[in-house]
Specification:
Distance between the termini: 37 Å
Structural class: mainly alpha
Helix content: 55-70%
Number of strands: 0
Order of helices and strands: HHHHHHHHHHHHHH
Oligomer: single chain
Shape: globular
Largest sheet: none
Low-confidence stretches: none
Radius of gyration: 20 Å
Mean pLDDT: 93
Length: 343
Amino acid sequence: MKALKFLTILTLPITVYISFTNMGWLTLLPLLVFFGLVPLLELLFKPDKNNFNKEQEAQEKENRLYTYILYAMVPIQLVFLVWFLWIMKDTQLTILEYIGKISAMGLLCGVIGINVGHELGHRNNRFDELLGEILLLTSLDTHFLPYHNAGHHFNVATPKDAATARRNEIVYLFWIRSHFQSYYQAWEVENTRLKNSERSWFHLQNRMLIYTLCNILLLAGIFFLFGLKTLLAFITAAVFGILLLETVNYIEHYGLLRKQNEKGRYERVKRTHSWNSDHRIGMLMLFNLSRHSDHHYNGSKHYQLLKSLPESPQMPTGYPGMMLVALVPPLWFSIMNKKIQDL
C-alpha cells in the first residue's frame, strides 16, 4: 500500500530510543542519522517527481490510512516526552550525553511535534486540529497554528510575512525575527477575529489566551513533578525543535516575492512562490512537506496528494542538506542567490 512508505518516519523514534537507552556517542545517533546519513543518501538518489493521476488521486484521497499514520504520531510523541522527562530527572549524564538526549527530543519536537502538528492543524475538523494543538504544545509552539493558517498562508512571499526570508538575510537573524514576529502576528490574528465577531480579546475563544495558559500549566507541571533541571532540559529541547522549524521556514521561501500591481495588491499565491524539493527521504520523513509549492497553492490539500510541478523552483538537494547549507551563510548565498537570478 502506498501509504505505508510514510512509516519511514518511524526511523526517528527508533534512533531516539537508541539515544535514550544508551550512553556515550550513541546518544547522538538521531543527529548523526538525520543530518549526516540522510543528506548523503539524498545526493545518491534521484528526486521523485511522480504524481498521482486523477484516478489514483481520487482513490488515495479517501484512504484513511494516511490519516491514521498521523494519529499514531501523537502517542509516540507523548510517550517519548514523558520518558525524556524521567531520564532528565533521574539520570546522571555527561555533557555529551545531555547534548545527545536533548537534541534527540528536540528532533522529535520539530519533526513530529511541529511538522505533524502543522499537517493536522490544516484539517477542517476539530478532532484533527485538537491533535495538532497537542503536538504543538509538546514543542511550546502553539502560536504556530493561528499565525500559520491566517497569517503565513495569506502573506507568504511578501514583506508582511514573518516566515518569508529576505534575500541576503542571515538564517541566525531570521530565527529571531521570524519566531517573535510570528508570535506577535498570532495575537493580532486572534484579536482581529474576535473584534470582527464583536467579542473582547480577553475571551475564552481567543486561542492565544488558551494556548498561553496551556503552556504555563505544562511548564509548571514539569517543574513541580520533575524539577528545575528537567524543566530547563525540556525548554532546550523545545527550542531546538523551534529552530528546526524556523530553519525550514528559511529555506522554503528564501528570496521569493510576489508581484504587486499599481494599487499595491499582491498577485495570488502561485506554485512559483515556494522552493520545492522532491528528494525522496526528506519527502517521506516530513510527510511531503518538501513539496511546499503545491502546499501553498492549496493549503487544505492532504499531504499524500501534493504534486511536483515543473514551474516550482527546485532546491538542489533535500531539506536536511539544505538546512545544513543554510547554517553557512556565504555558501547559502552563493548557491541560492544564483538560483533566484536564474528564475
